[in-house]
Design brief:
With 394 residues, this protein is an alpha/beta fold. Helix content is 42%, strand content 15%. The chain has 16 helices and 12 strands. The chain has a 7-stranded mixed sheet, with helices on both faces. The protein has a 5-stranded mixed sheet with strand order 8-9-12-11-10.
């Protein structure tokens, strides 16, 4: 496969494997096991002396195609496809830490990501420190002699804060920590964490990669050395493997990823500009606008804005609910990156398990709403937002 292909070509042709039948669309290998020519070949394969598939929990041709295509797109040497985005997050962290180790993470995280860091890891003797990831000094101050992992999202969920990935990466290398970047909100099209120094990149493939509300999936990407030394055995023995059927669905999703994300981003920019001028809106945060608090960092590490917009309504939770309930085209759902435009109220959904104080610290207020723009007509989406906001009392 050519390394010089542009993303749109990579995402159609990258990593393809064809059987003896010469099928055009990738095949789905719905088998849990594989045959061996004889006993000696089975022994050699289990000992790693010969290549080949052993068991679907370890890998399959369909999953291989998805992993290889994502590696080509991301600039990674190796990858493991997982059953969900959270399987990717938990695997990438837990496969490399042990009791006595320490994690530093940006405090602005998806609710389940924070649970992994704050609740699950400490049960196994792994301590953590959450920091305001926007300031590099906070990362440096949190480092301990036993710090093994740095973890961040950028842009963050749901307030679209941005972390200086190159700056955090430089510090991680100085202290010998592995930097994991959750790149979901930027998509692999708009941000390349490996080019900025990240060691591991994770995705919930459920989001933009599928992007059509059909299946769960995730992926962990890194160097072959890191995966061989950290993730390989963990993955085999704990079983977070992706279903081959889901891998096939995600392969189909990758083919249209650039088309969908382009339209979604254009719609997000239109929506953000409209919302910024509406009298019911107290604040709009969008990485594509010049008034984003970290516009200088965005210009350095992102090629475009995002498919998401965060807004705060003046009337608090009552106004947020009234707006959401009045929408006609845009649907209420906690998913994102879909072809359909979706909206959710983080304080009562994705981040409901945080304390009021923790949400306030992150800027998730009663009137905060997260809007994920789809591929519908941009004018129709703005009109839908306008008619809904005009019904809001504040």
């Amino acid at each position: 496969m050519s390394k010089n292909w542009q993303p749109a070509t990579q995402l159609v042709h990258g990593g393809s494997i064809r059987s003896q039948f010469g099928e055009m669309s990738e095949s789905i290998f719905l088998t849990q096991g594989f045959l061996y020519e004889n006993s000696a070949s089975a022994e050699a394969r289990f000992k790693g002396e010969t290549d080949g598939y052993i068991y679907a929990r370890y890998g399959s041709p369909t999953n291989d195609m998805f992993e290889k295509r994502m590696c080509m797109m991301e600039g990674a040497e190796d990858a493991r496809a997982t059953a969900s985005g959270m399987a990717a997050i938990s695997s990438s962290i837990l496969c490399q830490v042990k009791a006595g180790d320490h994690i530093v993470a940006a405090r602005a995280l998806f609710g389940s990501n924070r649970w992994i860091i704050e609740t699950l890891a400490p049960k196994y003797g792994v301590t953590c420190t959450l920091v305001d990831g926007r300031d590099l000094a906070n990362w440096e101050a949190a480092v301990r002699p036993n710090t093994k992992v740095f973890f961040l999202e950028s842009p963050t969920n749901p307030t679209l804060e941005v972390v200086d990935i190159a700056g955090v990466s430089k510090l991680a290398k100085q202290v010998g920590a592995t930097l994991i970047v959750d790149n979901v909100f930027a998509t692999p099209l708009f941000q390349k964490p490996f080019e900025l120094g990240a060691d591991v990149v994770v995705y919930s493939a459920t989001k933009h990669i599928d992007g059509q509300g059909r299946c769960l999936g995730g992926i962990v990407l890194s160097s072959k050395k890191w995966i061989d030394e950290n993730l390989h055995d963990y993955f085999r023995h704990t079983g977070p493997a992706m279903s081959p059927f889901n891998a096939w669905v995600l392969l189909k999703g990758l083919e249209t990823l650039p088309l969908r994300v382009k339209q979604q981003t254009e719609n997000a920019a239109k929506a953000a500009d409209f919302l910024a001028e509406h009298k019911a809106v107290a604040k709009v945060i969008y990485p594509g606008r010049k008034d984003h608090p970290q516009a200088d960092i965005i210009a350095k590490q992102m090629k475009a804005g995002s498919t998401l917009v965060c807004l705060e309504l003046k009337g608090g939770k009552e106004a947020a609910f009234a707006m959401q309930d009045a929408l006609q085209v845009i649907k209420i759902s906690n998913n994102l990156g879909d072809t359909r435009s979706l909206i959710t109220h983080p304080a009562t959904t994705t981040h409901k398990n945080l304390t009021d104080e923790a949400r306030a610290e992150l800027g998730i207020l009663p009137g905060t709403v997260r809007l994920s723009l789809g591929i519908e007509d941009g004018g129709d989406l703005v009109a839908d937002l306008e008619q809904a906001l005009d019904k809001v009392k504040f």
